[in-house]
């Protein structure tokens, strides 16, 4: 079935291509459809690897916004690593894969490193010279990438569950921080201290913070009080609105909370008009940011949503955007515009997946999990690339044969099929016929 | 396919049955969808709570993994789940019970993962990740796994080398010994051979001579004389007569024939029946006498001579030395050389000696054996007994000697008759303990294990329990085949008993029984009594009264209403009215008018009983062998299981449990037989500790105990402080 739909997709894409060449379709639309085509059939990449640095679970990954090139990852033992997503090694004969090179890393033995688990890492949106990290050691650190030293440290009274800088802010430079306390703190690195505190959540931790990518003053936070709250950071008197679901809840505790469980993940869609929330009630909702209403769409139920910040991702570039949510040992993915009743699961990690992000330029999903691995997921697992390699090899051989024929030399020995492909062949022995 | 998987995984064997696996693979080969379905089925089996099922399922998966790409893909996709189910990597999901199988499953899976990784790592990315995951996160030491194997191999090699060296050493030692003693043996052998030659010519010569002598009848007998004087005679009791006859050979051959008809040395067979029918017996004899006496070889008579295969040589003064040396050397061969050679042969053949050596050793052995057989055939008459005989009796009487080198081989059931009890008692001694313990357990509780123990003890034919069981079973048989043992036990408890009396007290010396003297007061006055009271001598009558014992039968007499009615040879049926068992026809069973058993199973059972009884009488050793099929005492599955739990090694508790189950099934408890051969996990959990704790910590029993304890406490408190206001309210 999947192959049929794939084929249909393929045909649609080709159709669009002809339309575009005929001038019937805008090139941007074609680009978007191509991008979403790449999002659809992700598989574990067969030949892309990340150089292993972490010796513990990977809690967060982040790709810089300036170059879309550097991958920042933070581990549970305080390790921070930066991989170059455009610098691949040549094909390794042993592993038959190409690895993304490591740019630099902060080992846990480093003087400046986090003493405990890192929960969140983020690039400075405007420059790769700075990145921030926070963790369970109650610290938010601002790092100088070039020297790999902390430029600034902010201490908090509780565990820092999440922090975020606005990606589009020009008028302010605030870092929103969710900690064990119900008060959301806003840190201004220019001032060197926490400037604001947003009081609105009832008692309990704040598990998720997210700046809007449309309005630079709009902040969304989610906490264990089951509410997701939208703030305008300029108004000091209170929140903008609480996202409230009018539907009757099972628990009946507070009838109009956002989720029937703590709100553990927040993410704005690419256009900034909608906010996606993930809760421990294993549900995924989309909210209209301006009206505060839930979109009447039935998204597939999730599973294994843990009681910590969920780092999920909503893609931006495609015509049909997808959500990638770590659920247990798999990543569930589904289309946002046409959600089916069942989500697709990407199996690749052992033990649970902690975070995922989509590298739009490379058309690949990058995920990190408790098995200390960063995995790259590409369209059909780079099968095309492999086939291309095969073809090239065959071509080479043919050329050789031609040349040999011309030179009337003996035939070259048959090149064996690449091992990786040979291994995927069936090997039924004949005695079982 | 589902059935196939189910069958394959429920074998309980550590390896898959080949034919079934092939069939399964053939099914899977047909399409990839089948393979996927197979994966689904296998995963389903893997979730079963039994390590043996999981092990089999895993092996099946391994088979398919090595063959189908589709299977590899789907398994790699669900590798984590697969690993969780097979290797117990998740802490909260340990492998299910049979620990031996679980251990095997774990190690085999890890090995398989490594194998897969090496073989298919390049084709399947997630497999590599899985391998890395195991290595890095779960700290599975694959190199160690390999190294362990290597170490094991090394150790095995070393062991092998050591063994070979030891074997070579043994062989060289034996060869040296052979080279040292071979000459001696050969010398001894030649000596004995020469002795034998001197004592008597080879049998072939002798028979030839015999034949020739008989052919020529009387005259030839003369020629045979020297041999006879050399005291070649027949073995039978009458041989002495024969030799005597030789001396006074005036008697004709016919007489000898007459005598020898007794001894069986010569037999006159009258061939032509018409001849004998025409002529009377006397005439015939006369004629025969005449004929033989005159050397007339009649065609009507055929003399067939049976030459006895055993020949004895009498020791005389002429051949004493030879005899002595022969005896010595034969003894030497028998006692030292032959066992030695046999031992050499064993060592050589076991430890891979050279062919030539073995051959020569075999030759030597055969040589020695032939000599020995010759010596045994030839009964040697010892000089001493001969002399004794000469002293107290006539010269003509000579005793047959005792067998040389005779080893009494008495079948165990006849030992008692031979007065050989010591051997048996030594065998019985270790059993004694178990018997006592058994009786102890019997006294203490009515526990299940006890019965098992008794059955085990009863399996040994030397124990008392066995005898008891036999008697019991017979009695059970006799009452009614359906009656259980329990019933018989009940009846046993109902047996009336009489108190220990004076006659039993003085069982050993009945003369000492004293009748209690009775003082008889002549006057019945209250105060005036005679000074000395006379004790009356008890009369004989009273004494005998004491010695006698009267048993009163407390039960009700039930007249026997049935007859044996077994068919008798005279066409009637047996009219005996025994209660349980007819002394002639065995257990009384229901029979129809003609005396045939009406119940077929009954009859067959009875028949079987007879047969087994016969067999047991004949060779109890074999029956003992048969009973060895039952569990040995060390095979108690419960004990084994406990040891297994402690050590993690497979001691075969599963097998013995199966055996036990079979045994119980054989007893006909009506338990439904399980289809699969899996070990019973529930049985594993059913330990004595569990059962006891279930009883002890039972809610109701706990309540009861608590209540009584509370009562006790309350009582004590009331006794102590009951007069106080605070406590008196309670």
From TrEMBL, chain A:
It comes from the Eukaryota. Keywords: Repeat, WD repeat. One of its GO terms (cellular component) is nucleotide-excision repair complex. InterPro entries: Rad28/ERCC8/Ckn1/ATCSA-1, WD40/YVTN_repeat-like_dom_sf, WD40_repeat_CS, WD40_repeat_dom_sf, WD40_rpt. The keyword Disulfide bond does not apply. WD repeats lie at residues 111-153, 256-297, 346-377. GO terms for biological process: proteasome-mediated ubiquitin-dependent protein catabolic process; protein polyubiquitination; transcription-coupled nucleotide-excision repair. SMART domains: WD40. This is DNA excision repair protein ERCC-8.
UniProtKB/TrEMBL annotation, chain B:
Its main location: nucleus. The keyword Metal-binding applies. Residues 494-599 form the UV-stimulated scaffold protein A C-terminal domain. Pfam families: DUF2043, UVSSA_N. Keywords: Chromosome, Coiled coil, DNA damage, DNA repair, Metal-binding, Zinc, Zinc-finger. It comes from the Eukaryota. It is found in: Chromosome. Residues 142-171 form a coiled coil. Residues 228-243 have a biased composition (Polar residues). Residues 214-245, 391-413 are annotated as: Disordered. GO terms for cellular component: chromosome. GO terms for biological process: response to UV; transcription-coupled nucleotide-excision repair. GO terms for molecular function: RNA polymerase II complex binding; zinc ion binding. PANTHER family: UV-STIMULATED SCAFFOLD PROTEIN A (PTHR28670:SF1). Belongs to the UVSSA family. This is UV-stimulated scaffold protein A. The lineage of its organism: Eukaryota, Metazoa, Spiralia, Lophotrochozoa, Mollusca.
């Amino acid at each position: 079935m999947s192959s049929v739909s794939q084929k249909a997709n393929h045909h649609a894409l080709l159709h669009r291509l002809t339309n575009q060449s005929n001038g019937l379709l805008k090139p941007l639309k074609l680009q978007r459809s191509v991008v979403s085509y790449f999002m659809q059939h992700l598989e574990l990449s067969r030949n892309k690897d990340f150089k292993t640095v972490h010796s513990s679970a990977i809690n967060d990954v982040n790709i810089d916004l300036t170059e879309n090139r550097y991958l920042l990852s933070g581990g549970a033992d305080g390790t921070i690593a930066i991989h170059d997503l455009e610098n691949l090694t040549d094909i390794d004969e042993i592993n038959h894969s190409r690895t993304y090179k490591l740019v630099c890393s902060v080992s846990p033995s480093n003087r400046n490193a986090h003493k405990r688990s890192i929960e969140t890492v983020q690039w400075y949106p405007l420059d790769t010279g700075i990145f921030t990290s926070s963790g369970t050691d109650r610290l938010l650190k601002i790092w100088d990438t070039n020297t790999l030293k902390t430029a600034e440290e902010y201490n908090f009274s509780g565990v820092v569950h999440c922090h975020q800088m606005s990606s589009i802010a020009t008028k302010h430079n605030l870092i929103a921080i969710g900690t064990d306390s119900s008060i959301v703190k806003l840190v201004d690195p220019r001032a060197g201290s926490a400037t604001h505190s947003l009081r609105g959540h009832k008692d309990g931790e704040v598990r998720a913070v997210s700046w809007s990518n449309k309005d630079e003053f709009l902040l969304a936070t989610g906490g264990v009080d089951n509410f997701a709250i939208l703030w305008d950071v300029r108004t000091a008197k209170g929140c903008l609105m609480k996202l409230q679901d009018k539907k009757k809840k099972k628990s009946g505790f507070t009838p109009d909370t956002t989720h029937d469980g703590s709100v553990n993940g927040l993410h704005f869609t690419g256009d900034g008009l909608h906010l996606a929330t993930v809760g421990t009630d294993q549900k995924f909702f989309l909210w209209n940011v301006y009206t505060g209403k839930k979109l009447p769409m039935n998204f597939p139920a999730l599973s294994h949503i843990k009681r910590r910040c969920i780092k999920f991702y909503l893609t931006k570039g495609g015509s049909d955007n997808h959500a990638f949510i770590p659920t247990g040992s798999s990543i569930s993915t589904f289309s946002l515009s046409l959600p089916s009743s069942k989500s697709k699961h990407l199996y690749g990690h052992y033990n649970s997946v902690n975070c995922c992000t989509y590298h739009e330029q490379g058309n690949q999903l990058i995920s990190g999990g408790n098995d200390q691995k960063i995995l790259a997921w590409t369209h059909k697992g780079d099968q095309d690339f492999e086939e291309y390699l095969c073809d090239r090899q065959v071509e080479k051989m043919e050329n050789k044969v031609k040349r040999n024929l011309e030179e009337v030399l003996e035939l070259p020995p048959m090149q064996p099929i690449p091992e990786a492909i040979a291994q995927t062949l069936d090997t039924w022995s004949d005695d079982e016929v | 396919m589902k059935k196939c998987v189910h069958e394959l995984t429920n074998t309980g064997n550590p390896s898959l049955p080949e034919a079934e696996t092939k069939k399964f693979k053939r099914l899977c080969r047909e399409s990839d969808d089948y393979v996927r379905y197979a994966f689904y089925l296998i995963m389903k089996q893997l979730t079963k709570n039994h390590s043996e099922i999981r092990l089999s399922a895993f092996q099946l998966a391994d088979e398919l993994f090595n063959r189908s790409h589709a299977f590899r893909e789907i398994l790699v996709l669900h590798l984590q789940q697969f690993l969780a189910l097979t290797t117990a990597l998740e802490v909260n999901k340990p492998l299910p019970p049979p620990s031996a199988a679980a251990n095997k499953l774990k190690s085999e899976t890890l090995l398989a993962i490594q194998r897969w990784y090496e073989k298919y790592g390049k084709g399947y990315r997630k497999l590599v990740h899985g391998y890395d995951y195991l290595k890095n996160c779960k700290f599975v030491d694959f190199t160690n796994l390999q190294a362990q194997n290597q170490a094991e191999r090394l150790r095995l090699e070393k062991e092998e080398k050591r063994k070979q060296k030891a074997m070579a050493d043994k062989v060289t030692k034996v060869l040296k010994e052979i080279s040292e003693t071979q000459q001696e043996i050969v010398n001894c052998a030649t000596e004995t051979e020469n002795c034998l030659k001197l004592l008597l010519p080879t049998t072939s010569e002798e028979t030839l001579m015999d034949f020739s002598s008989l052919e020529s009848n009387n005259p030839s007998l003369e020629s045979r004389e020297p041999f006879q004087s050399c005291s070649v005679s027949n073995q039978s009791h009458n041989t002495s007569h024969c030799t005597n006859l030789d001396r006074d050979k005036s008697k004709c051959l016919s007489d000898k024939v007459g005598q020898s008809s007794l001894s069986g040395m010569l037999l006159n067979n009258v061939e032509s029946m018409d001849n004998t029918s025409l002529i009377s017996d006397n005439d015939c004899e006369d004629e025969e006498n005449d004929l033989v006496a005159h050397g007339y070889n009649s065609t009507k008579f055929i003399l067939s001579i049976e030459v006895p295969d055993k020949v004895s040589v009498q020791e005389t003064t002429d051949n004493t030395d030879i005899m002595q040396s022969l005896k010595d050397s034969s003894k030497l061969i028998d006692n030292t050389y032959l066992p030695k050679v046999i031992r050499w042969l064993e060592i050589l053949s076991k430890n891979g000696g050279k062919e030539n050596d073995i051959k020569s050793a075999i030759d030597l052995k055969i040589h020695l054996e032939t000599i020995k057989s010759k010596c045994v055939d030839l009964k040697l008459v010892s000089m001493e007994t001969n002399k004794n005989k000469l002293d107290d009796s006539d010269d003509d009487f000579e005793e047959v000697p005792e067998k040389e080198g005779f080893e009494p081989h008495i079948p165990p059931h006849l030992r008692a008759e031979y007065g050989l009890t010591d051997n048996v008692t030594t065998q019985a001694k270790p059993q004694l303990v178990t018997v006592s313990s058994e009786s102890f357990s019997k006294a203490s509780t009515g526990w299940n294990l006890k019965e098992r123990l008794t059955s085990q003890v009863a399996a040994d034919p030397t124990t008392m329990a066995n005898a008891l069981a036999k008697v019991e079973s017979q009695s059970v048989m006799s009452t009614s085949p359906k009656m259980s043992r329990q019933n018989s036990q009940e009846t046993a408890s109902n047996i009336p008993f009489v108190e220990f009396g004076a006659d039993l007290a003085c069982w050993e010396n009945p003369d000492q029984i004293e009748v209690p003297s009775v003082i008889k007061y002549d006057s019945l006055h209250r105060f005036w009594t005679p000074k000395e009271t006379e004790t009356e001598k008890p009369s004989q009558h009273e004494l005998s009264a004491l010695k006698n014992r009267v048993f009163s039968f407390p039960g009700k007499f039930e007249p026997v209403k049935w007859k044996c009615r077994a068919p008798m040879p005279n066409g009637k049926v047996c009219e005996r009215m025994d209660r349980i068992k007819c002394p002639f026809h065995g257990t009384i069973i229901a029979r129809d008018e003609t005396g045939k058993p009406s119940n077929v199973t009954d009859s067959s059972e009875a028949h079987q009983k007879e047969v087994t009884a016969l067999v047991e009488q004949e060779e109890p050793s074999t029956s003992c062998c048969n009973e060895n099929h039952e569990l040995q005492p060390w095979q108690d599955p419960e004990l084994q299981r406990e040891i297994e739990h402690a050590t993690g090694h497979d001691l075969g508790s599963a097998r013995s449990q199966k055996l036990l189950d079979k045994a119980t099934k054989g007893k006909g408890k009506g338990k439904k037989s399980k289809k699969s051969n899996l070990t019973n996990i529930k049985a594993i959990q059913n330990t004595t500790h569990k059962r006891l704790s279930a009883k002890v910590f039972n809610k109701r029993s706990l309540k009861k105990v608590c209540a009584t304890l509370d009562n006790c406490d309350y009582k004590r408190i009331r006794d102590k402080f009951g007069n106080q206001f605070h406590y008196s309210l309670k």
